[in-house]
Amino acid sequence: MSSQFPCKQCGALLAYEVGTDHLTCDYCGFENPIDVANEAVEERDYHQALAKLSKQSLSKEQLSCSCPRCAAEFTLEANEHAGECPFCGSNIVTDTASSRRIQPWGVLPFTVPRQEARKQYQDWLKGLWFAPNKLKTYARVEDKLVGMYLPYWTYDSRTRTLYQGMRGTLYHEPIQYTAVVNGRRVVQTRMVSKIHWRQVDGEVRRIFDDVPIPASHSLPDKVRYRLTDWDFNQLKRYQEAYLSGFRSEMYQTDLDEGFRQARGFMDQIIQSDIRRDIGGDRQRILNHHTKHRNITFKHILVPTWLATFRYNHKSYRFVVNARTGSVHGERPYSPWKILLTVLLAISIALILFVLTEEHVDWERIMVEILGGY
Predict the structure, then answer these.
(1) How far is CA 308 from its chain centroid?
(2) Mind listing the pLDDT tens digit for each residue in 133-191?
(3) 3-state class (DSSP) for residue 263
(4) 150 and 222 together in one domain
(5) What region, left, alpha or beta, does residue 190 occupy, with left being phi > 0 and alpha being psi -120 to 50 degrees?
(6) Model's pTM, two decimal places?
(7) How many structural domains compose the chain?
(8) Which of 200, 223, 250 is the last residue of a domain?
(9) Chain-centre distance of CA 287, in angstroms?
(10) Which domain does 348 fall in, by range?
(11) Could you tell me which of 55, 53, 80 has the C-alpha nearest to residue 65?
């Protein structure tokens, strides 16, 4: 099923106006409001959803669309359910029920307009360290920035973790040694740091709220996993009108796989909690076991501006968070700049070492440098 949004005054097809709760007509300027639901985007029970999914099957895997404006039959790009009709350019939003068993029920609408996103990208490009000098001149956005909604899972969980570990306490112990001072062998004492280890058992608890997991595979991991600065407290009920004029992907990471990834991120935080609970000067975690209770989730869509730039015959992808304007992406490095920086650091270290030496044979050093001239 395909949806379009005609202007209530002139009938022209509309696109969502960034940063608002309405669609604006480009022809007559009339503002068509979006029916915004006031109720919160609720969490849903994770285990109940898995049980329900195990009993369901999909009728088809590919979204086939019929354009309400020109009646053309076509399919959207793989894993997309919002885009444009390739025949008349009309904005199309389709229902994902035929190819995805969990439908989005929350959305963060666009708030950063295209022009601002382009400026943020240019500022990001200028601020890159160790970038080739010509990058700022030759890097260009190949196509216009594409507004894309990306699918996300968010997970909540109450955790209780039992652990066994070791607490290390630093202490200092005097050790005698023989040294030569002014040509004489003398016995001296120095303090040596040691660690006393003691086994400890304990328990830590933590409540996780809205752990975000990207459910799209379109971006490289090092880019998509940096997209974490989402204001989930501003989520709105999913309305197809927010997608009009933009593209939108369907999830490719399933619900259970998403929670497996979320558990990995949670475990990193839990291990930090364990180390704090162990205390002392050093910590070792021997083993730990975490139980998750009251697991809930949301399936939501988040807004991004996507594009690529080319440098030295290679494409680099980047994404702009369309809520905050933050930029994350791939970038080239200048090996010469990195090499010169390393050589400079080594040179400074050698100079400092020479200057701090008490007895320096400067005449010998100059002879070696000048080669006897």
Answers:
(1) 17
(2) 666 665 555 457 889 899 999 999 999 999 999 999 999 999 998 888 888 888 889 89
(3) helix
(4) yes
(5) beta
(6) 0.76
(7) 3
(8) 200
(9) 29
(10) 336-370
(11) 80
